[in-house]
Design goal:
By secondary structure, the chain is of the alpha+beta class. Helices cover about 35% and strands about 25% of the residues. α8 packs across α9 and α10 runs antiparallel to α11. It starts with a helix and ends with a helix.
Length: about 375
């Protein structure tokens, strides 16, 4: 069920400016700050919307990898449970086509991916095989997708509140890992809240937070439970595009406001993208438009998502709402090798809300066996 218009307007505003204050947003939207704060508290408590932060990926920093997993017959459920429990894996989606499960992994480097994540996947006895595609160029992510409910003037006013990536990356903040963990749980956490967790002065925390956001070390996004977005169908494509037509293909795909992923990758195909759509019938229209924009494009696979179990560490229920449980990604060393803290998975009250109560392979049980 799609959210009421007033809720969607607030989510749209936070997609544009995730950390804008309620007073700033009130002025831009013509609402009262208290009303917006109460509305957001309700949406977040219900798990229908949330703001989260994660490791920033760009052409000069970080590594983004997609892994397709095929499970042994009858063992998909236990694999899903273990992969959801793995803090190193950001997103876990059940697929409908060639692969049983799709994984998204963000790491500081390919070396970290190869040494910390791939062995974890390959060692699982219930996984038959896995295919790895490494992003070579990232054109759009879920932090870029937008609803279409604010007026152009409202969007313009809210856009002035957005903190843009303004400068090149310098020294990594000393408490980068701990700060990222706080922002993964709540991308709107205040500098004072970050300071308490990182044991730094609020002024220092504010400065380091601004540095991390302005340099793209951390990316923020406002997420919305898909079944409440008005776009309940998720589809990911794997396409071969002639290099000379790649720019035109990307330009066409960027015309979709609900584009949540667009990237060049290694592997049998050289372009993958994901859209949220209103109906399965929209898939045909997307492919027809792509063929017009890039006549040489060949769709190798189009995969409709069945269910997302974990999205950027946030555990989701079957209805796509967040449980409130966040599996915090360990940061280890900062992006330039600077030591920083690690955070263990956070287990709030209400564990097992995402679908496997009492299972011996459940997240809580796995965490208890393996430790943080």
């Amino acid at each position: 069920m799609e959210l009421p218009l007033a809720d969607l307007e607030l989510v749209h505003a936070l997609q544009i400016a995730p950390r804008a204050s309620w007073s700033q947003l009130a002025a831009a939207l013509g609402r009262h700050p208290t009303t917006l704060a109460a509305r957001w508290d309700r949406l977040r408590t219900d798990g229908r919307a949330w703001v989260t932060g994660h490791l920033g990926i760009s052409g000069t920093q970080g590594c983004s990898t997609f892994i397709g997993v095929e499970c042994r017959p009858g063992r998909r459920s236990e694999v899903l449970e273990r992969l959801c429990a793995a803090a190193e894996i950001n997103t876990v989606e059940e697929a409908a086509r060639a692969w049983d499960i799709r994984l998204t992994v963000l790491t500081r480097s390919w070396q970290q991916m190869a040494r910390a994540v791939l062995p974890l996947v390959r060692a699982d006895p219930a996984i038959l095989r896995a295919q790895v595609n490494v992003v070579t160029r990232l054109y759009a992510t879920a932090s870029n997708w937008r609803l279409d409910v604010l007026t152009p003037e409202q969007q313009r006013r809210v856009a002035t509140l957005r903190l843009e990536t303004l400068r090149k990356r310098g020294a990594t903040p000393s408490r980068f890992g701990e700060m990222t963990a706080v922002l993964q749980r709540d991308g709107r956490a205040t500098a004072a809240e970050i300071a308490r967790t990182t044991r730094t002065h609020p002024t220092t925390a504010a400065r380091q937070l601004r540095q991390a956001l302005e340099t793209g070390l951390i990316t923020l996004r406002c997420e919305l439970a898909q079944e409440h977005s008005g776009y309940p169908v998720s589809c990911q494509w794997y396409v071969r595009v002639p290099p000379a037509q790649l720019e035109a293909a990307v330009r066409y795909l960027r015309s979709y406001r609900t584009l949540r992923l667009c990237a060049s990758t290694t592997g049998d195909t050289n372009l993958t993208f994901q859209l949220w759509l209103r109906t399965p019938g929209d898939i045909f229209d997307v492919e027809a438009g792509l063929q017009t924009a890039a006549p040489g494009a060949q769709v190798v696979e189009s995969d409709v998502g069945v269910r997302t179990y974990k999205r950027m560490g946030w555990m989701l229920r079957e209805d796509s709402t967040a449980t409130g449980e966040v599996v915090v990604q360990p940061q280890g060393a900062g992006p330039q090798g600077t030591a920083s803290g690690q955070a263990a998975p956070e287990r709030n009250d209400g564990a097992h809300q995402y679908g496997w109560p009492g299972s011996p392979h459940s997240y809580a049980a796995t965490a208890a066996r393996t430790g943080p």
